[in-house]
Write a structure and sequence with these properties.
This protein folds into 2 domains: 157 residues, 3-Layer(bba) Sandwich (FAD/NAD(P)-binding domain); 138 residues, D-Amino Acid Oxidase, Chain A, domain 2, CATH 3.30.9. The protein contains 11 helices and 23 strands. A hairpin with a 5-residue loop joins strand 16 and strand 17.
Amino acid sequence: MSNKKSFDFAIIGGGIIGLCIAKELKTRFPDAGTAVFEKEYACGLHGSGRNSGVLHAGFYYSSDSLKARFCRDGNKALTRYCLERKIPVNRCGKLVVAQNEHEISGLEELYKRGKANRVDLQMISVQEARKIEPRVKTFEKAVFSPSTSTTDPARVVEEIAGDLVRSGVSVYTGAKYLSRQKNTLKTAKGDFEFGYLINAAGLYADKIAKDFGFSRNYKMLPFKGIYLYSSEPQGNLKTNIYPVPDLKFPFLGVHFTLTVDGKNKIGPTAIPAFWREHYKGLENFKLNEMMEVMTTELGLFLHSNFGFRRLAFHEIKKYFRPVLVSKASKLLEGVNPANYLKWGTPGIRAQLYDVKKRNLVMDFCIEHDEKSCHVLNAVSPAFTCAMPFAGYVVDEISKK
């Protein structure tokens, strides 16, 4: 007889996606044994705890996408959760501004998408925009999203992890995935038997999926994001301010984010990273990862698939503080470079790349069968979408 611990559901990855899936499983199957395996000493130390903290409204995404399907409802669910748990939420809204006549069509497309997604949006004049934020710069009009807000992502993750433990879910930290052998999960904390496995490992989701026969056409392409923090006093900015994005890319451009404590920051960058957890210097350096990632990036650079070469040149310039501040100053009057000296903690976007189609995967992506489910692409606005997205994942599992 095996003396291994056994669980009905084993979840790899203690970020917000893995935690919310565990929470959903415990709600639907209260008598089932559920466990989360997180490689770090605490949950949410990578993408979930390093993101901007913005609760997005859901108007960037085409109405046939999973992102559109979950963002609006996720915003409401996570806002409600934060308020119930007394986690601070800055309900400051967001202005999306146009810099010239050419961008008006992009602004109108966002408004159209928002309405199709049943998101509360307002198309407003320059004068109305300046009533919301007196310093804002925009051409002719702007889009205002009153339901966009910000919170503290680390606090949210900590609270959800606490919920799980209190409900009887086992949360193992320091339990790095090593391998699998049939229905045995081998981790740094020992071996565990499982009935069904969910892989929500973020930057390593594709690697783990390959051990189960999935992710054949995908690999992870990491992008580093860094914000530059302002030393201006609390309340100096009234709302988040974003440019009209290039909808061909999954990045939203340099913008002003109003933090939960009323300060502001500009960014982020979307710089191609050289290995999966390439936060700074040689931290977490892995030679084999660097060779794999750089080989992929070199191929994209040479062939300029999906405009990668232009994107790389454009983003690398943002490493230079004057360039980042200059881009931000196009959105707001009175931006003083002397106020923007402090770089924040870097984050890595776990962006999935489709090797066969040679493009970035724009929407959420899962693959699954009767034994395992793999969350391969859960990038922004995954933090906002986490609760309804978890419901969708459990629905898909239940079908099997």
